[in-house]
Amino acid sequence: MRRRVGALFVALIAGLAALLPSTPAVAGTIGEYPEFPYPSTTYSEPFRGQFHFSSQSGWMNDPNGLVYANGVYHFFYQHNPHGLAWDTMHWGHATSPDLVHWTQKPIALEPDVHPGTLFSGGGVVDKDNTSGLKTGALDPIVVFSNTDGVSVFYSNDNGQTFQAYDKGRKQIQIPDASRDPKVFWDAARHRWTMVVWSDQGGNGVNIYTSPNLLDWTFASRFKAPWLFECPDMYPLALDGKAGQQQWVLTSASSQYVVGSFDGTTFSTDWTGPQQMDLGTTYAGGTFYAAQTFTNTPDGRTVQMAWQGGNRGSTWTGNATFPVTLALVSTADGPRITRTPVAELASLASETKSWKNETVSAGKAGNLFGDIKADTYEITAQFDVKGASAAQFGFDLHARSDGTADRSVVYDTKAQTLQGKPLKPTNGKITMRLLVDRGQLETFADGGRYSLSDNADFDSAADSQGIRLFAVGGKVKLDSATFARLNTSWGTSQSTLLSNLKGPWHAAGGAWSDVSAGKRASTSGDGFYMSAGSGGDAVYQGDITLDTAHAGGLTFRADAAGAGYTATLDTSGVVKLWRPGKDIAVHSTPITAGRTYHLKVQTAGSRIRVWLDNGADPVIDATDTTYTSGLFGANVYNGAATVQNLNTGTAGFSAFPTGRWTPRGGNWTVTPAGLRGDSAQDGFYLSDRAGTDFTYEGDLSVTNGAATGLTFRAGADGAGYTANIDTDGVVKLWRPGKDIGTYSTPIVEGRTYHLKVRTDGSRIRVWLTGRTDPVIDATDDTYTSGLFGVNSFAANTIAQNVNVS
Asked: How far apart are CA 603 and CA 57, in angstroms?
């Protein structure tokens, strides 16, 4: 969303600024990306929605780039993670397996890491790799942002990190004020289409087409005074009939028109728009800037919007519950329906139902009188043909003194629900209420009626009543159902990267999410256990001790952590132990604040432990006490962080050597290889040295400047480095001197193969299969030394590193 904002939105921000603590806006750094700047929460705060998404902390507004990719729903959104008001937009990120259970993830797009104004935009999944951006097995997620033109960003690791295409340069230049690009696949013409809001001669959208998401051609412009900000455009089959597809064009305020699209031009015979939602549809209201998911696996058109009226002590704003959109015929023409996605039922734990009851103003009792509930769903159908009641409905979060936090009222004479028009259908009024701690969503008339609202519901035990009432007479209740809805939070991992099955659980200690993984604070032993189990396996992970005395990998264990554990211990040992016995120890210095990589392999009673990617195990022992059990992690007496807890042999593939040692930066091992994060120069050095050799490996700059192969180096990394640099060069350098360079595009996220050959003072460098070296130089400063990997002001990956 905007840097130029309307007066109402400015007033909203000013009001929030007066109410909420002031926090300066903060941009990010390459060395800390992806950032996870969120304090711990159980999502149980007052007014925090239990099944409506809200950011773990900070400000959120517009949904961005809603996609289903690689088996997961991704919800990106406009976000200030460092304050409770709009400022310095980031793209927040959450994922879900089912549109209901959301998990906060690290920041997706971050100022000073990604160029441009990171305002609202859309996203797609490039399953056919039309862009050529795909670099691995996963389908690329491609998103679009910026103002007064459009920039492209993409992810090849299912949204963990994003790269800027073409250094973030605008692929579409728009001379007028513009923002909020939304992209979709035009299946009929086998190409991509984009709609972008601009104020070129008044409100409207520019329409562009592209074969590959990168090269865009202007197609047409659709102007309308109501069409302000955050457009969305999608086809819907009228009455569900495939042969009656029509196109819907919407604005941020949920106004829409239905028409046709011929691949270049949108047209409609409507003289004005309809309103999709009856809430307060302005920026900061209860329904704004809705966007639909692309590429849903079942073809549904699913929509979520921003609700700005919800806030708590650590967050501002939430998203509406996801709904499925449809287009139905009416006497007035085609109309949109909004229906909560069926997956909501997965939260239901208790249901009650009623049929053929009479609700009367004079009748004692309340059908819902024995229910106390905080978050729930009510569906009710009333027969109003013979109703004498002037009004009927529900008091929500009702108290014994007759008060309630909200009332949902149908007025039989005015034919309004919550003050909005709703005529009976065949003499019936059907309403569906979603009641959350800070949200109330009301649906009726088969979804044609939709009203999204924020409500501060009192969750105290004496404020959880429900009253079904009638005023001035009686009304027949054909049927009603009540379903208690449980919380959707806490079912997956925010920052811990692992291929182990969840859910995870803590068995001792306090475990929280931080950028570096899962952090524990314990007095005594604390375990964090997965639901994955095994007998013979390879299990590996990264451990960083802070104040903890020890920490490591637990395996073949029960739910309480009783099993085997291989730990790093600050007393100066690597230890394999089980309850009651130290099985084996290996003496070596262990330093607080440094990340170590442990690998365990079990084969029957034989257990081997490797440290820091060394070729030989540091422990090789036998024990028959436990033959199978759960995988997890252990921290003892203090604070430590664990990350990359994976079973299997995938990891850092490298030449045989003893332990590797970091010299600057942070180095971890993922299934993709050795990951380096550095603010300046960081080195990861083996203990193997060489004089003349061939040294090669696969290198990638995920984000940032450069990575390379270091050789003939000292223990501090001082030696030669041949690197790839995203400034567009391959470089051979040593401290104080660039020995040789070769100009060529180096793209973030793409893997390059470097090969170095030394013969005395002659050093040659090859790039990605080139027959001839791209650098052939001489330098005699260093004649022999260690092999290693370098990362400079970047996130990097190194893999398949070999010496011959």
From this structure: 45
What is the rounded distance in angstroms from the CA atom of residue 375 to the CA atom of residue 541? Answer: 39
In the three-class reduction of DSSP (H, G, I as helix; E, B as strand; rest coil), residue 156 is classed as coil
C-alpha–C-alpha distance, residues 783 and 720, integer Å: 10
Tokens of 40: 């711990």
**How much is the pLDDT for 363?**
67
- In the three-class reduction of DSSP (H, G, I as helix; E, B as strand; rest coil), residue 402 is classed as coil
- For each successive 10 residues of the chain (804 residues), what is the average pLDDT? 36 36 66 94 96 98 97 98 96 98 98 96 98 95 97 97 96 94 96 97 96 98 97 97 94 98 98 97 97 95 97 97 98 97 97 96 84 98 96 97 97 98 97 98 97 98 96 96 97 97 96 97 97 97 98 98 98 97 98 97 98 97 98 98 98 97 97 96 97 98 97 98 98 97 96 98 95 97 98 97 98
Kindly state the helix (H) or strand (E) to which residue 644 belongs, with its residue range. strand 629-647
Residues 6+ apart with CB under 8 A from 165: 133, 151, 152, 153, 154, 171, 214
Question: Which of helix, strand or coil describes residue 16?
Answer: helix
CA dist 142 → 110, 163, 171, 304 (Å):
16, 10, 13, 19
Q: Around Cβ 736, how many Cβ atoms within 10 Å?
A: 7
Identify the residue whose tokens are 């340069």. 169
SS3 call for 254:
coil
Give the CA radius of gyration of the chain. 30
Q: Are 121 and 170 in contact (CB under 8 A)?
A: no
Could you list the active site residues?
A: 62
Strands 673-690 and 785-803: antiparallel
Tell me the C-alpha distance between 57 and 318, whole Å.
Answer: 11
Point out which residues pair with 67 in neighbouring strands: 74, 294
Type and span of the H or E element at 549: none
Among 299, 317, 283, which Cα is nearest to 179's? 283
CA distance 789 to 801: 9
The contacts of residue 40 (CB under 8 Å, 6+ apart) are 512, 513
Number of Cβ within 10 Å of residue 348's Cβ equals 15
Q: What is the pLDDT of residue 365?
A: 76
Residue with tokens 């990998």: 553
pLDDT value of position 18: 31
CA-nearest of 199, 180, 185, 184 to 289 is 180
Task: State the pLDDT at residue 545.
Answer: 97
Output phi, psi for 305, to 5 deg: -130, 170
* 136, 354, 400, 577 from 562: Cα distances, Å: 38, 50, 50, 10
Checking DSSP bridges between strand 439-444 and strand 323-328, what pairing results, if any?
unpaired
Phi first, then psi, for residue 649 (nearest 5°) are -90, -10
- Report phi then psi at 440, rounded to 5: -135, 115
Q: Tokens representing 675?
A: 């990951």
Q: Between β-strands 619-622 and 420-421, what pairing exists: parallel, antiparallel or unpaired?
A: unpaired
For the chain, the residue count is 804
